Structure formats: structure tokens, C-alpha cells
Amino acid sequence: MPLAPAPFTPFTPFTPFTPLTHDDPQHLGDYRLLARLGSGGMGTVYLARSAGGRTVALKTVHTRIAADTSFRTRFRLESDAARVIGDRYGARVFGADPLAATPWLATEYVLGPQLDEAVRLSGPLPEPCVRSLGADLALALGRLHRSDVVHRDLKPSNIMVTAAGPKVIDFGIARALGDERLTSAGTAAGTPAYMSPEQAGGLEHTPAGDVFALAGVLVFAASGHGPFGGGQAADLLYRVRYAEPDLTGVPADLAPLLARCLSKDPALRPTTAELARLPAAGGGVFADGLPQPVLADIARRSAAVWQEPPSRLPAPAGEPAPVVAAGMSRRGLFTLAGGAAGAAALATAGALWAWPDRPAGSEQPVLPAGPSSLWKITITGPRVDFAPLWVDDGLVLATGSVVQKVDAATGGYRWDENLVGPWRMATDGEELYVLPEPETETAKDARTKALTVERFPRTVVKGKPLVTLDAFDAAHKLGQLLCVDGDTVYLSAKSATGPEWFLVAASLKSGRELWRQPTAAPSERASSPALVRGKVVKGGLLLCRRSEAGESLGLSLHDTATGAKRWERAALPVTGAMPDAPATDDDHVYLGSDTLQALRLTDGATAWSFGAGRDTGSKPYGVRRYGIPTVQGGVVYTVESARGLVAVEARSGAELWSEQPLKDTTADGDVAPVVVGGLVLTMDKIGLRAVDSHSHKALWRYPTTAAALTADPAGKRVYAREERIALALPIG
Fold first, then answer.
1. Rounded Cα distance, 535 and 585, in Å
2. Residue 153 appears among annotated catalytic residues
3. Domain housing 71
4. Which residue is catalytic, options 153, 246, 473, 585?
């Protein structure tokens, strides 16, 4: 029998912020407090703003609670978990000081309501919106789980609904898998209505427990009630452990999957990877599926950020009133933001991570702003896991299922074409080659079902295939174009007659196969290939293969004449993002993880390793010690986790120079540096930093959240790829 849903309570939409009280501090860290966002038994959350105009939500802990050492440790872990999930699926961390008298954590002020507020505003969400919500939250949890972190308290009030998608917040009881030090044995930490059965019983909460909680959240979003009703905690815990979930009101197409997620047996629940495939193909923009009352609430919150903050409440009679510093005017804030268009960006852009254990006097000053962008364009259907490709005189961007070319000088549109995935294209610098999308009219023609390689754009070359391979399956979406070198194109392709996969070489001149060698098949659950783009180097064809969990990398070198394997290194530990293409010279391939390594191209053996035992500063949880490297002119450039850029001699692995530790940020090791115009350009958590390759000093920083960098061959510009923006910066 379905549980009786909780009675509907009228919900008041977002209202202006609560005033500061007379005894609230004026500043915490570098932030001026503006208003209260909320307060409870654990602490207070403020709306605050930096001197540079960045608006944040600043979470504090009551002094009496901060006196507990274990709580301070938990607070630090909360900061680390928020950084692991990243700003796409969470509130970006700008700063933290868990050792202060009043510990604080500054994050992005998310422009949107909590999920429970959104449902009370509009009622249950439409099915397409629930599907998109589930897919994004599954991706968010998957990112946590790959870093061995579980959330343990996923519930509607810990999910913010924004126009760009949901964001997971509040990691107060998140922890590393297997770490029992902060949880008493036999106790259940979390929210009873959304606990997993094992968590309710005080047992180990694994990633499968987060999947259970996610299903409960989606039941609430789709129906307006939780899967186990309401009431006293003891009653809820009993129902979570023993009762069947109430799926009343859940769309029929979603109910079977959510029922599996809510299985009492963790082994029967689907993975986050399976849940990430919830949306239908071509899912569309998240905001398009949101009900109008929710969109209106988001708009009200966006506008309220720039209203004058409420006046501080006076002190009670007999107490002295605090002296409050004058605030910056909105005109000044908009000047800093570059105009009204930057207002929403200031609430979310940039990053700051303060590490209190750096040696005094070792920090760099705050850097001046970088050059103005030459152009900036908006990208639809974003993909940031492949860097822009330089083709002839333009840039080719993979944007979801579309390949788009823009003019490198102006950012102007050239053309776009459909493509299943960016792994189906490669360039020799002059032409773009692709495996056409299987579902086009051409592929449906019985005479052209063979795997083909074409030049893009089709509008210019009229779709004439350069290579036609009847032995391989054109329709498999994970078929991959690895690279092009001279007359030869290298592919990973499935047999047309069986389940076997092959590494294949074909001639662009003759259009025929040159050779094939068996290779491992991609996982049946994979949404993209395991192979990272191949590269022809001195001695052969170098291939990279990522593990399914994304925590290790395999390398192999193959004879370009026959495809025979010359050597292989399996399961090299490489945390974080994988390189789009391996960093190589004539002697080595270079990898960054716990150390910076050089592997010999002749036999794959380790030539040298740099960084073992080296003091790289405090390493945030889940962040690699050495980033994806770049090699140029006999020098390997990479970043050290909590420090900056380091330059190492490619031949010997000896350190040539390094930056001083950064004052206000952490280096971003998941973006490879680029060397252009006498500068080494590298990402940190605030933006793109330019380091002079002669003086070894940082010159400027351009605020951006770029996930990939590309330099033009002439050394005049660098191109940055954000999630929804591509831009060009002048160099020199």
C-alpha cells in the first residue's frame, strides 16, 4: 500500500537576504560580509564579496563546535570533497581556512533554489527534466567515486537547481572510502529519508549507497514525495531497511530503473555510469525543461546579488555598535566586472584556495590582469575533453555531436557538421579527416555501409570517401580515427562480421587497408573509446589506453609498417584527466602523476623519474602531484600540485627552474601547459597564468576556467576552451 504523501505546503519564493546582526564579523579572510543566507545549530552561511568583486557563499562554524578537533578535520574534508566534484557539478571552492578561530569555507554563490524548494514552487518536475537531473547527478557522483569519496548525505536540500544544471552541495559528512575514523561504529550518519539500508544499519556506505540516495532524490523530483514517506526518524529508518519504496507518481518509463536503484541489496543497484545515460539522445538544454516558476526564481536570485545589501541590525541597548567599513558601490563592481554582462559571471567565475601552511615570504604577489581577448564565442552542446584542433588557418571544436570550425583570427563561423564523437576525427594540420556519422543518409545506402574516411567539411569535398574498408563496421559509435601521418590513417575498428576489434592502417592515396592487428574491445558500457588519440613518433605508432575507471594508463608502441607491437606498459598509475595526446620528443614519452616520468621510446622502460620525496606544498585531496606535461626545445614543463610551474631537462630529468609557491591558488594539473612567444602558459584555479621562460616569473593572469589550451603555429595567440566559451588571447 503506498505511503500517504506529506501534505503540500505553500512555498514562498526567494526573498531578499537576511540582515547581518550586530555581532556578525565585518570580514572573514579576504571577504566582506554582506548579508546572512541562513543560520543553524552548526554555523552560519553568509553572502560575501571579495575586494575584486567576486560574490561567494561563505560558510562558518560556531566557535563552540570548532573547538572539537575531529570537527575541524571533517570541515577540511568537506572543502576537499567540494573541490573533487568540481564546479560543473558542485559549488566552486574559492577559499577556506579550517584553522582559523572561526573556520570558514567560501564557495560559489549558486544562482538557483534547492531541489526541494523548486518542487514546492512548481510541483513535480517534468520527466525530461528528471532524466537530465538524474544524468547530471550520476556524473557528479561518479566523479566523487573515482576519487574514492562518497557523499553519504545526498538529498533534495543538498542539490541546487541552476539554469545550467544541478549542483551538489554540502559535503559535511562525505569521506574517503574505507575511512572509519570520523564515524563511530554502529552509528548512522545522514538524513533518514534518503539513507541507504546499509547506512541506516550503521554499516559501510559505498558508492552503491549514494546510488540509493540518488534514486530517492529522483523519486521526490518526479512525484513530490520521498520513496519512504515522512515521520519520525526511527520509523523512516525501519522503512528504509525493510519496506518497499513508494513510486506513486513516478513516470512509468522511470519506475523500473529507480526500483533497481532502491534495491535493498547494493550489488543489484545500477552504477552511476548506467544512470548517466538517462536522457534521450540529443537531450537539449537543461533550462528548457525547467518549469516557469523555477526559472523565475533563478532570475530573482540573479538580480538580488547586485541589490544593496540590507542594513546591519543595531546592537541591543547597552552594547556598543560595531564599526562597519563602507562597501563598494554597484557601479564599482560593474566596472570591475566589465559591465552588466559580467554580473552573473562574477558570482561563479574564478577560484581561490588558501593554504595556511606555506612558508612566510615565499608567496608571489597578486598578478595583474592579462591581455584582453581578441574574440570570444559561445559554444553550444559543449565538450571539453578534447582540445581545439588547429586545421589550416582555423580551429576545429568538438561541441557535443557537432564539429564546428571557426576562423582563428576573428572567431567567425566557418562551418559545422554532425559527428558521433570527437574521437572520430583527426588532422595532419592542413586537412581534417573523419569517420562519418553512421546514421547519415549516406551510411544507410547499402553500397556505402563500409567504414569510410572522408575529408571535412563535406560541403567542400561532396562526401567522396578517401578510404573504404568493407571488412569493418561503420555503424559502431566507438570506432575511432586515431591519427593521420602523411599518406597513412590509423584507426580502431570493429569487424563487420564478428565481435573482434582491430588496430588498422589504411592508405589515403589508394583507399585500401595496409594492415590490421587485433586489439582490445571497448567496454560494452563505455560511452567513449578507451584509446586516447594515437601519435606517430620516432620508432613507431604510440598508443595510449585509459583504464575503464580512469585511474591508470597503458602505453604501447607499434611498427608503422606492420602494426606489430614493439613494447607495452600496462596500468601506469595516472590520476586525474588523461592527456589528449601524449607529450613526446625523439627519445621519450612524458607522463605526470605522483611523479613526472620519462619512458624510453625504444623499449618503454623508465629513463628517469622526477619529484619523488620532493616538497610540493600541501596537496589538495584528489589532486595529482604532477600535471599533464608539455615538452618543447629539450625542456619538459609541468605543474606541481600546490605550487606552480617546474621546468625539467628532457634528457636527464634534472630541474632547470621552478616558480615560487603561489599565494592565492592551486595549479591545475589537468590542463597541459603551452609554450608560445617566450611564455609558458599554464592554468591554475583562478585562470590562465603567463610565466616568462627567461626570468621564470609570472607576468599576468587571465581569469578563465579553460579545460584545454591550444597555441597557433605562428606563436602569436593562445586559444582557450571553456565549457561553453572559446576565446583567443594575443601573445607578445
1. 11
2. yes
3. 17-109+305-353
4. 153
